[in-house]
Amino acid sequence: MRLSLPLRMSGLRFRLSGAIERTNRPPIPQAYSWAEHYKPTPTRPLLDMSQGVPGVPPPKIFLDALGTASSSPSSCGYVPNAGELALRQAIAEEMRIPYGEDIDVTAGDIAITAGCNMAFVATIMTIAEAGDEVILPVPWYFNHEMTLTMLGVKVVPLPTDPDNGFLPSLEQCAKLVTPKTKAIVLVTPNNPTGAIYPASHIAMFAGLARSRNLALILDETYRDFLSTESLPPHKLFAPPASRGPFDPSSHHALPTDWCWRETIIHLFSFSKSYCIPGHRLGLICASPDIMPSLNKALDNVQICAPRPPQIALAPLLPALRPFVQSNNEALKHRHTLFKSLLPPKWHIGAQGGYYAFVKHPFIGIGATKVARRLAEEMGVLCLPAGFFGPGQSENVGPDERDVEDRWIRFSVANVSDDKVRHVCQRLGESEMAFGWETE
């Protein structure tokens, strides 16, 4: 009998992983391909508000310390999976600034990872397996969805409502929980919407996760870009005495026997706060009970995070706090400027962290089509909401993407005030240039 051979892929005699084939490609390169069609001039350069990257370099004291650490032979070896103890101790202490002096977090709760994406990958590898389910609010951070798909974990979308500031609904989330559900994921301040979840809202989701024996994965990459009025972001890490009296009739209150280590897996990135995305440092803050299992995943995917930036950062975190606060103030100013200059027909649905989520004015036109023309014709690079939800590929058919989805993400972190002004001017120009009906 003649055996049939598998179809050859281009240049390959072997098959690629089905899971990786089902995983969406990163969408940002797609947006940059649109920008290649724009013809910039000295007076009309390309204005990039697409990617959430810091707009300033790290301070010299860090760069000097990094140079010293990098040139030391002692930093060339391995470090335990969980990272440099000095940095874990320092960040546990630093967490008292946003979360409160009396929080119950120690170095034993922390593992350092090669970026926050790695933190999410290792977390999912530790708590879920193929066929399990994880609930993600939509719009979602696309790397979260990509990770789950790559690992064979079913993504369960939790729609959010623009009229409610893109906050996920607790009631809708509860209905999505099944025996296969392993975790709920929240990102606050949110990527891509910028929505800042109130502490009471986070507490309700923590209560739901606890009652259903689920993990609540809380990605707080942008926590250092909250206003004073929004601090602390939540009281999940606080002991009962500092949370106030328990009111059993309130859905916002945590029970008196609440222990965050039973439910919460907190993720954080050093990339945004300290402006070092290329050095790949993130962390997982979770119960020491999960650490032996987590270290198995970390040993396979990273062994250890890069040592020189860990060594450089550990003694400097207190000295770098003014730099972090200064960046927060600059970002707050830029958000205010963007909102004040945005053309009247363009509406902000949510705003915070690095991002503003804006509804364009073109009736019956999907956000992907608008974002593409903005890049190709107006020289404004931004990302449509379709990149942050089911069917995020540009090639999704009209029956799979709502043409009334008119939301676009603008990153205000990596542009100057002058560029913000020019972006808003060009958005206004597009209303005439595109020839589409507007509101």
From TrEMBL:
Keyword list, A-Z? Aminotransferase, Pyridoxal phosphate, Transferase
Pfam families in alphabetical order: Aminotran_1_2
Q: Per the record's keyword annotation, is Methyltransferase included, yes or no?
A: no
Stored InterPro entries = Aminotransferase_I/II_large (IPR004839), AspAT/PAT-like (IPR050596), PyrdxlP-dep_Trfase (IPR015424), PyrdxlP-dep_Trfase_major (IPR015421)
> Required cofactors, per record?
pyridoxal 5'-phosphate
The answer to whether keyword Transferase applies is yes
Which part of the chain is the Aminotransferase class I/classII large domain? 47-427
Q: Which family does it belong to?
A: Belongs to the class-I pyridoxal-phosphate-dependent aminotransferase family.
Q: What is the name of this protein? A: Aminotransferase class I/classII large domain-containing protein
What organism is the protein native to? Somion occarium
